[in-house]
Amino acid sequence: MKAFFSINRITFLALTRSYVFQTVLAFLLLCVIGLPMLLSGDGTALSHIKLSIDYTLSFVTFILVFSILWTSCTVMNSDRDKYQLHLVVVKPVSKVTVWLGKFFSILVTHTLLLFISMAVLYLVLHFNLNSSTYTQKQREKVYNKILTGRKTIKHDFSGLKQLYRKNWKEKLAALKKSGEVLTDRNKKELRQEIYFQTLTNSGQVEPGKSSEFIFKNIKEDSLTNIILKFRIFVGNIKMISKQNKPKAAGAWEIFDPRTKKYNKIKGSLQDYTSNIFYELKLPAGCLSKDGTAKLRYINKAESVSVFFQITESPVLYITEVPFLNNYLRAFIVIFLSLVLITGLGCALGGVFSFPIAVITVAAYLVIGSISNFVTLSSKSALDIKKEQSFEKSLTDFLLSVIIPLSRFDTSDELSSGILIEKSKIFDLLFFLILCKEFPLLFLCIYIYSKKELGLITKK
Amino acid sequence: MTDIKQSDNFSNVITAENLSKIFKDFWNRPKSKAVNKITFNVKSGETIGLLGPNGSGKSTTVKMILGLLYPTSGDLNVFGEAPSNIKTKKLIGYLPEETYLYKYLTAWETLDFFGSLFKIPSKERKKRVRELLNMVGLSNSAGRCVGEFSKGMARRIGLAQTMINNPELIILDEPTSGLDPIGSKEMKELIKLFKKQGKTILICSHLLSDIEDMCDRVILLYGGKIRAEGSLNEILKEKSTQKITVPALSPEATKKLLEILRSRLSEEKIVIDNPRISLESFFLDVIKKANEEKAITSGAESGGKIPDFLYKKNNFSQQK
Questions:
Q1: CB contact under 8 A, B67 and A452
Q2: CB-based contact (8 Å) between B222 and chain A?
Q3: Has residue B45 been placed in a domain?
Q4: Full-model pTM
Q5: CB-based contact (8 Å) between A6 and chain B?
Q6: The complex's ipTM?
Q7: How many CA atoms lie within 13 A of B109 on its CB side?
Q8: Taking chain B, what is the end-to-end CA distance rounded to the nearest angstrom?
Q9: Angle ∠(A156,A161,A165) on CA atoms, nearest 5
């Protein structure tokens, strides 16, 4: 261990005494102090704090990822290129120890930077919120919506799958009866059409009628602060411009399991504007023993239907942890992304030359992000199996070997007050880091330890 | 795993048998044969010189001994073990041809770092670092970064790191390269001192005078093969001529001596001349006189004290 800590120490000295590192530190401080001062959003406290968290955290992560990528490849390469590694490995220290010593040093140094940045940002956020001229109401709104850790529970729309299949079969039968032959292209388009039709119809609430939404798996101890968040579209589900926003009267009711009746939610009867998110606080005692809550929306409009985008809203927000706890979870997730980049940088830096290592790691991250984006955009909310295509197969293959860095992005969740679930942290740690990254690391460490040194003589 | 035995239990510190190293290209095709089936032994306490021009295979051989390169074929043992064995490395000190040190570390930090790789306890390490800096004349530059050092100073700190573990086998690649004549002389004196202590020394050099001054035996490599091997006496002795050195004689005495010699030898085989001192000796003499006049110099100082721990036998079981 003594050798490990010695390697650790000199790598730390190499980092802290380099100009690149000092520049990164300056940028980070500028970012965490300067950005929250410069950003103001639409002038409200909510927008100011949301943007401060979102942008600053994204910038901090970007700077750290860039710094790690650069330093890990440099540290692993310069030793070998400048022959210093020769002098180290002729001492009683294994190459694996050298690799691990450098890896941990780079990781610890950048984790320290992350910790400092996030601690400063935390203080700056609270300082800005409390020292600005915001009203008490605005501040409360920030504490309720952003500076918190709220779990999101979507309503159960699993029955949609069967409905879609039924609609699809009926459509096919009708086409067969009429003798119409579909090309593959038409078939694909028709599927999409049926899919959107099913979604639209399922989210429709006709005038004077109601639609029920069931929320499952709610913990009993989270009864104290449950918020219903939703938005409706009046007339049709298409996005409506800012200038023309129709309204429709409506009300929410909640099922009381004790009286087995629906009760009106206080303050829910009002004219709701199309395409605007609303939040309502639910009354206590609305949960059945199995952790289910039933709600229904009544369309009070006389002649116009309203629509819900049922894959997106309504949702329940349940405050599970305070903001600091959620903030620490975000820290852990960003830390895991640093583990990922440090590992990749050190692994490939130890095997390849500096430019090849940097380009390979960068390409790995870019391909990972693109693959993730392609998969997300092609993913259906109904989880309907799509036709196999070359692009999909390629994306699936890439995602099975490459880790998408975008999965580690928490700035949006944190700035929206959404709880960063422990299960997400576990997934990132186990499936992405341990199962995907570590085998690659072991392979690269093995190659590094077996690689001959001094193949090229300096002269 | 068995412990590495100390060198005094070994007659051979290094054993190489049919050792070959072939460098290959990307497609694993043989590119060049750097070392070609060489067989040699280095005995305990011996000072051996590895001689040869550039590309003769001496650096490749040294790198194989150090475990940096792996032999393509043949056997190579250092202290009876494979060169890559970590325990073997505890007994080796290596001074490379170029000083491959971390430029951002100070002289003190450099020695402390290399000392820590040998798991030398902190207190003992500090003592050794202080003594070694004194030995190489860099006590006043202990806090300066190695990157700011001149080549000679870097060489001295390189020597200090070589000795931090009080090694049994010292491998020196061009030990006097980059040193001024004083440094060069001190380096040679240190090597002679280590030799007296019974350490095994392998010197790799093109400077034939260095090898001649310090080595008991030489191995001459060319084209990856051993071309000559043996003690300096065996290799260099000219059995057909003799040299008599006497104080300067009077003209009469010289004349009488010539008459005796002419009666036994032909005229052209007799040479009488005043021997010259070497330029090195002359230079050292000038510097010595300047020192006596208290001339001030910056950089490394000469004449440092040899650390006490280097007089002791290396015992790594105490350092664990």
A1: no
A2: no
A3: yes
A4: 0.81
A5: yes
A6: 0.78
A7: 19
A8: 15
A9: 160
Please report where in the chains the tokens 């306890």 appear, as a residue: B121
Per-residue confidence (pLDDT) for residue A456, from 0 to 100: 55
Averaging pLDDT over each range in A12-21, B227-236, B309-318, which range is the top one?
Answer: A12-21
pLDDT at A455 > cutoff 70 = no
Q: Would you say residue B316 has pLDDT above 90?
A: no
A398/B128: higher pLDDT: B128
Q: What is the mean pLDDT of residues B268-287?
A: 68
Q: Which of A223-232, B124-133, B302-311 has the least mean pLDDT?
A: B302-311
pLDDT computed for residue B280 by the predictor? 62
What 8-state DSSP symbol labels residue A235? S
Cis peptide upstream of residue B121 (ω within 30 degrees of 0): no
> Does residue A33 contact residue A122 with C-beta atoms inside 8 Å?
no
pLDDT, tens digit, for every residue of A248-262? 999 999 988 888 889
* Residue after which a domain boundary falls, among A284, A305, A320: A320
Residue B117 to residue A14, Cβ atoms within 8 A: no
Q: What are phi and psi of B206, to 5 degrees?
A: -100, -15
- CATH number, domain at A251? 2.60.120
**Got the DSSP string for B56-116?**
SSHHHHHHHHHTSS--SEEEEEETTB-TT-HHHHTTEEEE-SS----TTSBHHHHHHHHHH
Contacts of B67 in chain A (CB under 8 A): 89-90
pLDDT of residue B2: 39
pLDDT at B70 over 80: yes
- Is A456 domain-assigned? no
Name the residue among B92, B105, B113 with its Cβ closest to that of A90: B92
**Spatial distance between the Cα atoms of B124 and B120, rounded to a whole number of angstroms:** 7
Contacts B32 to A, Cβ<8 Å: none
Mean pLDDT lowest for which of A302-316, B71-85, B190-204, B284-298? Answer: B284-298
On whether the CB atoms of residues A335 and A118 are closer than 8 A, the answer is: no
Which DSSP symbol is given to B236? H
Q: Which of residues 314-373 of A touch B (CB under 8 A)?
A: none
**Nearest-neighbour CA in chain A from B95: distance (Å):** 8
Domain boundary among A298, A320, A342: A320
Substitution target from A2, A81, A91, A455 for chain B, most B beta carbons within 10 A: A91
Mean pLDDT over A198-227 rounds to 82
- The answer, yes or no, to whether residue A459 has pLDDT greater than 60, is no
Query: How many degrees, rounded to 5, is the angle at CA B300 between CA B298 and CA B302?
Result: 115
> Does any CB of chain B come closer than 8 Å to the CB of residue A289?
no
| B219 pLDDT more than 50 | yes
Average pLDDT in the B269-295 region?
Answer: 67
CA distance from start to end of chain A: 36
Subunit contact B119:A2, Cβ cutoff 8 A: yes
Q: What is the pLDDT of residue B277?
A: 66
Determine contact: B7 vs chain A, CB below 8 A. no
Q: Nearest-CA distance from B69 to chain A in Å?
A: 5
Torsion sign across C-alpha atoms A298, A299, A301, A302: negative
Do A43 and A158 reside in the same domain of the chain? no
- B67 part of contact set with chain A, CB < 8 Å: yes
- Supply the CATH number for residue B208's domain: 3.40.50.300
Range of the domain at B93: 7-238+279-318
Does A357 reside within a domain? yes
B21 has a pLDDT exceeding 60? yes
Taking the Cβ of residue B105 and every Cβ of chain A, the question of whether any pair is shorter than 8 Å is answered with yes
Question: Residue A312 belongs to what domain range?
Answer: 154-320
Q: B147 to chain A nearest CA, in Å?
A: 13
B282 Cβ under 8 Å from any chain A Cβ:
no
Q: Is B114 on the interface with A (CB under 8 A)?
A: yes
Tell me whether A449 touches chain B (CB under 8 Å).
no
A104-122 pLDDT, tens digit each: 999 999 999 999 999 999 9
